Amino acid sequence: xxxxxxxxxxxxxxxxxxxxxxxxxxxxALARSDDKAELLENEGFHAWVGDLNDPSMLPDLPVEESTVxxxxxxxxxxxxxxxxxxxxxxxxEKPPRRLIYLGTSGVYGDCGxxxxxxxxxxxxxxxxxxxxxxxxxxxxxxxxxxxxDVMRVRVANIYGPGRLPIAHLKAGHPLLREDQAPxxxxxxxxxxxxxxxxxxxxxxxxxxxxxxxxxxxxxxxFFKEVARLTGIPxxxxxxxxxxxxxxxxxxxxxxxxxxILNSDKIVNELGVQWQYPSLREGLPASI
Length: 287
What we know:
This is NAD-dependent dehydratase. The protein is α/β, with parallel strands linked by helices. It has a single domain (3-161, 186-214, 261-281), classed as NAD(P)-binding Rossmann-like Domain (Rossmann fold), CATH 3.40.50. The protein has helices at 11-22, 34-42, 82-90, 127-146, 166-171, 189-202, 219-230, 240-246, 249-256, 264-270, 279-282; strands at 3-7, 26-31, 46-49, 67-70, 98-104, 149-155, 157-159, 175-176, 183-184, 186-188, 208-211, 217-218, 237-238. Helix 4 links the parallel strand 5 (98-104) and strand 6 (149-155). Helix 1 packs across helix 6 and helix 3 (82-90) runs parallel beside helix 4 (127-146). It is globular and about 55 Å long.
């Protein structure tokens, strides 16, 4: 990869960029402000300031013949992702060689406690997941029209340094009872960055890859393990009926959602090996 362009250069984007820099690639990153641009320049990236919400504010990024990591989430509201459409419109005449889109396992909908593969049909159950699916479909159609190899990565939950529920635990907010909290998949941020790099290097246009570690567990267990390692008192656990009364809807959904991913494909086809295959390895490296 001679040039990498990162759109949505937050925590995961910076990790992807560092890996690309280490491999000798030029890294260009889209920043939302001058302050963000300065931080990215300090990482060794070439930062361009622009706004995905306004196509007239998107700079002339050097995406032509480059590898683009599109990591920006959709805005809230509705069932479409206007940011994706703005990007495709602005860069339709000088498109990249390949684009890797970081999406969500939410597009699979409610699959109970069954591990889903990339062959499972999509059936998003929330507006947030429908926006993500819209972005996938938009990029795929654009890629076919413009000759761009578009690859999609679907992930459930991400944890790692700076991505732990410390504030929640310190505030003493209750947890859902562990016996009522279903298992869900997650992945360490470093492993996700490495997986994205592997998809860019060896993936083929049109492919979808699930990314998760090898040991799903409930969100309640995850929170309790973080508390144990940090010495924070474990909050009380409440049953589902009480949780509906005291938890915000988004947080309740976080605890009750079951999304178990089968990520054998990226391991077998691209040779990705997890540095942190479970919380036992990943949490100590995150604190």
